[in-house]
Design goal:
The chain is mainly α and about 70 residues long. Helix content is about 50%, strand content about 0%. It has 2 helices and no strands.
Length: about 70
C-alpha cells in the first residue's frame, strides 16, 4: 500500500474588527428604551400608574405578567 500524505490546507485567520462605540450607541439606546417600555406595560400598566384606561393592555400581557412574577390579581 502506498501512503499518501496530503499537505494541510492553509488556514487564513480573519481578524474581526471591533465596532466603534458611535455605531453601537444609538442601537443600544433604542433597544434599552424599548425594553423599558415593554417592562412598563407588562409590569406596571393597570396598576397605581396607568397610561391607558381600560383592561385591554392587562388582558394582552396577562400571561407575561405571571411568567415574570408580577402580581396582577
Amino acid at each position: 500500500m502506498a501512503q499518501s500524505t496530503a499537505a494541510p490546507a492553509p488556514t487564513t485567520q480573519s481578524a474581526v474588527a471591533p465596532l466603534p462605540l458611535k455605531a453601537v450607541a444609538p442601537w443600544a439606546v433604542f433597544f434599552g428604551v424599548l425594553m423599558l417600555v415593554l417592562l412598563y406595560f407588562v409590569g406596571a400598566e393597570q396598576g397605581a400608574v396607568s397610561a391607558l384606561s381600560g383592561e385591554g393592555v392587562h388582558e394582552w400581557v396577562h400571561d407575561a405578567r405571571h411568567l415574570l412574577g408580577f402580581p396582577c390579581h
